[in-house]
Amino acid sequence: MVVGAGAAGLATVTGLRGNGFEGPLTWIGAEAELPYDRPPLSKEVLTGARTPDQIRLCSPEKVAELGVDLRLGTTVTSVDVDGRKVMLSDGGVLPFGSLVAATGVTPRTLPGSEGVHTVRTLDDVMALRAELSPGRRLIVIGGGFLGTELAAAARSLGTEVVLLEPEPVPLGLAIGAEVGTMVADLHREHGVDVRTGPGAAVARWHASRGAFDGVTLRDGSAIAGDLAVVAVGSVPATSWLAATGIDCAAGVRCDEFCETAVPGVYAVGDVSSWYHTGFGAQIRLEHRTNAGEQGLYVARRMLGLTSEPFTPVPYFWSDQYDLKIQAYGVLRGHDEVRVVDGTIVDREFVVLYRRGSRLVGVLGVRRARALRQWRAQVAAGAAWSDILATT
Q1: Contact 304/330 with Cβ under 8 angstroms?
Q2: Is 304 left (phi over 0), alpha (psi -120 to 50) or beta?
Q3: How far apart are CA 52 and CA 59, in angstroms?
């Protein structure tokens, strides 16, 4: 049984069938939609450059070919791991032999922000898209990757945008202050009102006749707006596993083989927190590439086709205006950032990230070939002293 019908769930299902599993296979998805790709939501789908049909990952014909019992618009409410069965939101009860959690994450909200947009699903994006047009003002709360991508997409539609980030710069915690400053400058050049620092946090929400019409910030500034979207991170969707005894404090905790403390129960994609032996740490990634890779890995692991731990080199990207930011590794929590190719001011560069004594990540803009050359050293956990000696 695979619970979650996104990219990670699809990869698990196709991996099982592709590697010879011919037994019964149940696949459960909370949304009524067939699986679709999420990264384009905050980019091409929001701008209208791609339609919902163009981001589908699976057709009805493919489902039939896979021979799965696909149940869309259904959620698992609880799991009996001893009895090996799940309880469904429609009152049904289904047995399982092995279980894969692929339920992803849900958006964080802020106190008092009821009725304000969040973005996770196709329906979320289509609802936001319907309200964006020239002359309207969107307030984006949160300057992470999702918030900055939403701001860029909205500006391309002619919508006025205010971007609020209580940290010193957008994306600073994720990719460092220097690169984050470049992102802030890029948005300001495209007409975004970027406000940062503790004073940029929302203190009060305002509504007129029941409809959102602005915010007051901690620094006392009042900002009028026609609509707002909260993009302040996400929470792993694990409530359905609460009674199982599985550690879900920071995602579904797994070992180096993506298996939980309950034998035969695995987790993949955004919801999975597994021990990465290469980085020597428990990590959880909300990356599209990881969802696919981890689903395929777990399928092979369940079928006894691999004895190696899951040790990918994480990869992610972000498209903002005409700029593509790409990175390998785990950048958050770094101790040092060093430019080794090009310059940040010219927006053509490669930067390396150190944690402790080793290389843990690399990020590049308009340097795709040079970026790929560093991937192997990230995978190997190259010593920082060796890198300094050769750059």
Answers
A1: no
A2: left
A3: 13
Burial (CB count within 10 angstroms: exposed 0-12, middle 13-18, buried 19+), residue 72: middle
Rounded Cα distance, 298 and 293, in Å? 9
Contact 310, 256 (CB under 8 A): yes
CATH value of 109-230 in 3.50.50.60, 3.40.710.10, 3.30.1490.20, 3.10.450.350? 3.50.50.60
Angle between helices 7-18 and 288-302 (to 10 degrees): 30
- Least confident segment among 16-20, 74-78, 384-388: 384-388
**2-106+234-302 and 322-390: same fold?**
no
Does position 122 have pLDDT exceeding 90, yes or no? yes
**Within 13 A of 249's CA, how many CA atoms are on the CB side?**
2
Structure tokens at 91: 């009152």
The contacts of residue 163 (CB under 8 Å, 6+ apart) are 140, 143, 147, 148, 151, 170, 187, 192, 193, 194, 195
Q: What is the pLDDT of residues 2-35, one digit of tens each?
A: 999 999 999 999 999 999 999 999 999 999 999 9
Predicted pLDDT at 329: 96
Cα distances (Å, whole numbers) of residue 331 to 78, 336, 351? 35, 10, 11
**Dihedrals phi, psi of 189, to nearest 5 degrees:** -65, -25
State in words which class domain 322-390 has.
Answer: alpha beta
Model pLDDT for residues 165-197, shown as the tens digit of each residue: 999 999 999 999 999 999 999 999 999 999 999
CB hemisphere CA count around 52 (13 angstroms):
11
Q: Is the pLDDT of residue 208 over 90?
A: no
| Residue 4 token pair | 């979650």
